[in-house]
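User: Could you go from structure to sequence for me? I need the amino acid at each position, not a summary. Structure tokens:
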């Protein structure tokens, strides 16, 4: 079908920045590569620890101590020989945000840290790049897509970062491994819909999943007209070929 060929072409032309090669990033990157996305960049400053292995499924026991970007990239290359994969073994921060985001068509936030999530949001909105955000902690997961200048951004929803140390990380508080796989795979599915222009995106709504209760919810969102990040931002450029 013509439509299928066009969708495959869009996936093959897309370049996706995956920030975080932990539980979410492993699931999302693997699913994106399997779907035919041919360009991925992995960003993560951390190294593989034994406590990661139950939920970060690109990393194996033999990878203990290796940089997660190297372990993840090797696993993906072995499964998808045609994949063009780049790595940056650094923390995503204000100094590298523009360069990393600017070279890609769209972004996956698979990080485990509230401050970094605000930083990613502000960077993608400033550069008008679409973002698929996800977060997990203990038994709770959440997912939303941000089209800068079109839909509510992360800061429209959450305002400002909480005080440092007031919200534990997955490493500190724990997370259900299967929840990470569920949300990371959904995150990739959202990215695929975004790239191919199919289906309905999770814009202006937050999808939440309670893995203890087995309950999904949609929370309706609105742009905050006084949001310091996105109130004056124009809509994004077209997603897909030629935009990254
Ligand atoms: Zn906003």
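Assistant: Here is the amino acid at each position, in order:
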């Amino acid at each position: 079908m013509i439509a299928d060929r066009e969708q495959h072409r869009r996936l093959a032309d897309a370049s996706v920045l995956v920030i975080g090669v932990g539980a979410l990033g492993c699931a999302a990157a693997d699913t994106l590569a399997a779907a035919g996305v041919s360009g991925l960049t992995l960003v993560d400053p951390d190294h593989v620890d034994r406590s990661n292995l139950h939920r970060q499924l690109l990393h194996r026991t033999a990878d203990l101590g290796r940089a997660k970007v190297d372990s993840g990239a090797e696993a993906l290359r072995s499964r998808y020989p045609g994949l063009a994969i780049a790595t940056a073994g650094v923390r995503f921060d204000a100094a590298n945000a523009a360069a990393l985001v600017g070279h890609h068509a769209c972004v996956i936030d698979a990080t485990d840290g509230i401050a970094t999530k605000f930083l990613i949001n502000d960077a993608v909105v400033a550069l008008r790049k679409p973002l698929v955000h996800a977060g997990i902690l203990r038994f709770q997961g959440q997912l939303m897509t941000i089209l800068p200048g079109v839909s509510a951004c992360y800061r429209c929803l959450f305002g400002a970062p909480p005080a440092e140390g007031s919200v534990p990380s997955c490493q500190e508080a724990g997370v259900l491994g299967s929840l990470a796989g569920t949300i990371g795979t959904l995150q990739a599915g959202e990215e695929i819909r975004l790239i191919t222009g199919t289906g309905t995106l999770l814009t202006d709504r937050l999808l939440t999943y309670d893995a203890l209760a087995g309950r999904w919810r949609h929370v309706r969102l609105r742009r905050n007209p006084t949001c310091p990040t996105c109130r004056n931002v124009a809509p994004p450029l077209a997603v897909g070929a030629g935009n990254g």
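One structural detail worth keeping in mind: Residues 240-244 have pLDDT under 50 and may be disordered.
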